[in-house]
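Dear colleague,

Thank you for sharing your sequence with our group. We've completed the structure prediction you requested, and as agreed, I am returning the results in plain text so they can be pasted directly into your records. Please verify that the sequence below matches your submission; if there's any discrepancy, let me know and we will rerun it promptly.
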Amino acid sequence: MGRPLKGTRPITDPTLTKDFWLELSGITEPSQREKFLWLSIHLVRELGLNRFKVTTVAQMLGYSVAMVNHHFGSRDGLVAECAELVHQNYSLDLIDATEAAERNPRSRLEAYIHARVVCGRKLGGWTQVLNYPFHSFESPEIARAHSGAAFESSFFRNLMFITQLVIDLQQGTVSENQPDREKFSNEILTRNPSAIFHATNIGMATSGAVMWMAGRMDVLAQPQEFVDLADAALTWQVQHLVNSITITEKVDASA
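Please find the predicted structure tokens below.
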């Protein structure tokens, strides 16, 4: 039976306190469906997708796996919806970090690149899912049906955001608004392909760094000397990526 008997409350894991939910979701009493969603997000981040089991989620919440199917259709349906929410919050964190930087193009781009690694490191097991959004599932068709449009929209939104930051650095400006998708395709792709190349390079370089950290070791759990080395490497990478844009544009301008 998926639900506890009428008039009774599910026996939940004692670690699932109000403080736990507040830190995880921002509210102390999520709905039943929200609890499945947020607890799954937490467990995938801690364990990785391969070790994540819906039976663990259900047992911790005091229900059977039937409740997962009731709310999300399947394990992949649950993970797909979790991934969509994780990526939305990740994208907002990147924008917040960029907007908090000094109002000059270099500082904003540096803040964005730095945040991609720092925020990405916190994703833990979600790193694999967000970098390989459909190949990570047992049934890619289910993932596409649940979140395919959202993933595509998020991909283009992030690509436009990175590209605009690159263009701002090239032109020495700070844009207040992002271009819409049609304008992006019709104008930026045809008139300034180098901006796309730089944006793609930034995305691949930072994603690779995060995947390595998430898949090989917990950098922050290492001795302080290693943490300092990792931080220095991150600083160098940010500077290298930004400097490559400036150097390339100077060469292009003199050609």
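Summary note from our side: Residues 75-254 form a domain with the Tetracycline Repressor; domain 2 fold (CATH 1.10.357).

Kind regards,
the structure core
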